[in-house]
Amino acid sequence: MKITPLFDRVVVEAADVEEKTKSGIVLLAKDQEKPQMAKVLSVGPGGMVDGKEVKMQVKAGDMVLYSKYAGSEFKIDGKEVTILRQNDILAIVSTK
Amino acid sequence: MKITPLFDRVVVEAADVEEKTKSGIVLLAKDQEKPQMAKVLSVGPGGMVDGKEVKMQVKAGDMVLYSKYAGSEFKIDGKEVTILRQNDILAIVSTK
Amino acid sequence: MKITPLFDRVVVEAADVEEKTKSGIVLLAKDQEKPQMAKVLSVGPGGMVDGKEVKMQVKAGDMVLYSKYAGSEFKIDGKEVTILRQNDILAIVSTK
Amino acid sequence: MKITPLFDRVVVEAADVEEKTKSGIVLLAKDQEKPQMAKVLSVGPGGMVDGKEVKMQVKAGDMVLYSKYAGSEFKIDGKEVTILRQNDILAIVSTK
Amino acid sequence: MKITPLFDRVVVEAADVEEKTKSGIVLLAKDQEKPQMAKVLSVGPGGMVDGKEVKMQVKAGDMVLYSKYAGSEFKIDGKEVTILRQNDILAIVSTK
Amino acid sequence: MKITPLFDRVVVEAADVEEKTKSGIVLLAKDQEKPQMAKVLSVGPGGMVDGKEVKMQVKAGDMVLYSKYAGSEFKIDGKEVTILRQNDILAIVSTK
Amino acid sequence: MKITPLFDRVVVEAADVEEKTKSGIVLLAKDQEKPQMAKVLSVGPGGMVDGKEVKMQVKAGDMVLYSKYAGSEFKIDGKEVTILRQNDILAIVSTK
User: Fold this and answer.
1) Do the interacting molecules here have an ipTM over 0.90?
2) Entry pTM
3) Which contiguous run of DSSP H or E holds residue B89?
4) Of the candidates B50, D68, B3, B85, which has an alpha carbon nearest to the alpha carbon of residue C82?
5) CA dist., res. A80 & res. A32, Å (int)
6) Contact (CB, 8 A) for C64 and C96
């Protein structure tokens, strides 16, 4: 089963505990209601979005931080995924 | 009887249980008030919408995920349909 | 007596029971506070609306579905009419 | 005494009972808090309004329907007048 | 002491009772919390305002009607003045 | 210590009692919760702000009136300063 | 571990007590719920953001003042960091 995001949408999967520990990122108490670190699963094609050209900056496999309350959540094949606009992604996290 | 959407509107029909099971998508509890997976029935012509050129990316038969609270609901010939803007569609789901 | 809408305004008349039955459209319970299916009586000229070119896609006689809460209602010569922006019209319904 | 509206502003005077009766327009109960039919007294020059070119479509003497809650009300020389933007005018009513 | 408004700002002084009586304008009861007729004291230079070209249409000495709740009020040299955007001015009133 | 504002930001310092008295400006009671007259300390470079060209019209030393609730307040080296957008400045006050 | 901000995002770290004391900036009581002075850790590439060209004006190492409530907070490797848009940064503070 495959999810193909439209426009500037990005599908991300909540990072698991091991990944979070490895990354050294600890979310502050007030933000812990919602996981804000996630791994990118698939990325829309970008292009004209609301009359503006959008180039995609993230790719599948990137670990990202994103805005609280952003996106719509689904549970697919047992995985919790969130579909965001790329603009809701704040930064890419790398562990090297 | 036929429904022809205007501009960037898309008519979708709530996916039935069998389709949902086959797709492997399970909606999270907090989202279950409203079905967010649906099959596209018909698609508007796109073109200039609010002064911006919109190209339609979905077609009749596509299975799609869409934003919570998006769209207007009607019951037509016994089917529940929702009329959305294409921009409220997050992703296309395929089972292959 | 004649009502000439300005710009992208459209005058519609609530569909009567017979028309609704014939069309096969049944509004969902939560939407029944307001009729959302109506027949177009007259159509504005379109043109520049808020600095954007608008072409009219509906014509007098069309049966249309429109957004809940859209428009202003009047009672004229005994008929209930609603004046909408064309952008509040979601789809054209045809029974052939 | 003369009121010269700026930009796309339009000065209208509430239609009196006789004019309303003649026109055949009866406002629905929920709309009766505010008169929504009025006669145009004077019209601004149009031109660039918020960076967009506006052409005036109504003229002094027109009988118009306008949006509920639109405009600012004044009492001048004993007459109740409302100053609207042209965009709040929905339609021109004629009795021929 | 001199107040030089920036951009499309306009400084107005509340009209006194004599001027109001002479003009024949009586504000409706619900609008009486705030004087809405005033004399223009000084006018900004216009020009590019939020990326849009604005030409000033009012001049010092004009008697104007303006939108309720518009502007910021100050008391200067014993006079109550309000600083408005030109766009909050609805019409120029003349008594000839 | 130096504060260099970005873009169209302006740093102002609340006018002291002597300056206010000299200027003849008395704030109305309802506005007295927040000082709205201030002296400009430093001015950003202007340029492209949200995609629009902004030219700075105020300079260090100007005495200005500004919108209620505008800006962010800080206490620096014992002085209360407010950082505003230039667009929140209504007028320049001069005492000559 | 490295955080690479996207677009016009900026990662800042709350200034510690020593840095605040040295800078002479004291936040007003009502603003003390949230630290508003911070050191820039890393800066996005700028470029097209919401269809507008953004050039980055701050660099790693800058001490900045930023708007209350702006940004999303994370705790990374024991440091509290905030990710802001550059537009939420009001001014650069220097101690020379």
Assistant:
1) no
2) 0.83
3) strand B89-94
4) D68
5) 16
6) no
